[in-house]
Amino acid sequence: xxxxxxxxxxxxxxxxxxxxxxxxxxxxxxxxxxxxxxxxxxxxxxxxxxxxxxxxxxxxxxxxxxxxxxxxxxxxxxxxxxxxxxxxxxxxxxxxxxxxxxxxxxxxxxxx
Length: 112
Fold this sequence. Notes:
It holds the Pfam family Bac_DNA_binding. About 45% of the residues lie in helices and about 25% in strands. The chain has four helices and five strands. The chain has helices spanning about 5-15, 20-40, 85-90, 95-105, and strands spanning about 45, 50-55, 60, 70, 75-80. The protein has a three-stranded antiparallel beta sheet. Strands 3-4 form a two-stranded antiparallel ribbon. The radius of gyration is 19 Å and the shape is extended.
């Protein structure tokens, strides 16, 4: 699901709200989560999960084309840990096999 689909579903579920207001609400929530992570704070949404920031130390990598050593600076990456309630819902859900396989194929290079 992408942001516009989320906004459309929320607007449909809440017909008393204008779509532009729902879009503003969703954007504000995402902006606040991003700002909190940028400050180094942790954001916890009970039953859903927690967002935090992890530090990746500086290291020496390799240029895949030449094999020459390359310095890679320290970086900070967002990290999401699912909440217990979300994990239980996923593990007890009836997800069609085709959707599950499509989701797994798209997550192959999300290991970084």
